[in-house]
Amino acid sequence: MVSKDQPGPLQSMTGYGSAEGEAAGASFRWEMRSVNGRGLDAKMRLPQGAEELEPQLRKKLAPLQRGTVNISLKLTREESDAALVVDEEALAAAAHAIQTVRTAIECDLPRPEAVLSMRGVLAPPTAEKTFPEVLLAALDESFGRAVAALLSSRQAEGAEISAVLKDRLTAMQKLVADVREGTANTRADLTAKLRAQVEEVAPGLVSDDRVAQEVVMLAIKADVSEELDRLSVHLSSFAEQLEKGGAVGRRLEFLSQELMREASTLTVKLPSAELKNLGLDFKEHVDSLREQVLNLA
């Protein structure tokens, strides 16, 4: 089991695991399928008589941490084990009833097959006989193997998702750098653009100081340094969580939401169509990021 101090690899919430075994004249097979879920929700289908195992089996699911897990047990017995048995208490009650009738009226003893056909005399094996300790122990051990197989499946897919996320992060970090570079000369660009517009409309009528004041106001409105700084921080936190591993899905969901919020603000404030396109590219990466993150435990 993975400890809290050692989070372990990332896990996808989807996976499959199985394990087989034989004991006490029975063969069995566990199958487990997990899908996305907000918490850890295990749904078990156990044969009658095996219900006592459920509490200890559920404890073995703790390493999965999140996801909806459907668990089934298919058990096949030898014919002799599945045969009906005589219920001693029911047989004694039947014998007492027969004796009462013979005391009241004179009649012959019933034939054995007639006694066996009386309600309750023949019954399925009791849970103790159906699931002896050796079988319960084998079921418990094989359940652990099935959980390990499921965990391995989920971790393998988690590694694939992690690789995709890291590629996305690299692309997003480059976009942040490109936007930062593109906005570095915003004030100079605004000055030249505004001066050209003023000279076209009213040549010689507006002072350089007035143009400079307008440029400052426009530059303040177009300043995106805070948004870029916050995006860089969120991307770094995202990368740290990926390296940390374990059940980081919820944390990454939150960071994805923060990335989208900052990216939306950034895109609106960017001063040129070229830079806005970079912002839109960033938002597309965030969308892809969120889709992948939703699969993580």
Layout of helices and strands, plus pairs?
Blueprint: E1 15-23, E2 26-35, E3 40-45, H1 54-59, E4 67-77, H2 79-82, E5 85-86, H3 88-104, H4 112-116, E6 122-123, H5 127-130, H6 133-184, H7 186-201, H8 208-222, H9 225-244, H10 249-269, H11 273-293
Parallel strand pairs: 3-4
Antiparallel strand pairs: 1-2, 2-4, 5-6
Helix pairs in contact: 6-9, 6-11, 7-8, 9-10, 10-11
Task: Walk me through the structure.
- Helices cover 61% and strands 13% of the residues.
- The chain is α+β, with helices and mostly antiparallel strands.
- Mean pLDDT is 87; it is low at 1-5.
- The protein has helices at residues 54-59, 79-82, 88-104, 112-116, 127-130, 133-184, 186-201, 208-222, 225-244, 249-269, 273-293, and strands at residues 15-23, 26-35, 40-45, 67-77, 85-86, 122-123.
- The strands form two sheets. Strands 1-2-4-3 form a four-stranded mixed sheet. Strands 5-6 form a two-stranded antiparallel sheet.
- It is rod-shaped, with a radius of gyration of 36 Å.
- It has three domains: 15-81 and 130-154, 2-Layer Sandwich (Ribosomal Protein S5, domain 2); 86-123; 155-293.
- The longest helix is centred in the middle third of the chain and has 52 residues, at 133-184.
- Helix 9 runs antiparallel to helix 10.
- It is built from eleven helices and six strands.
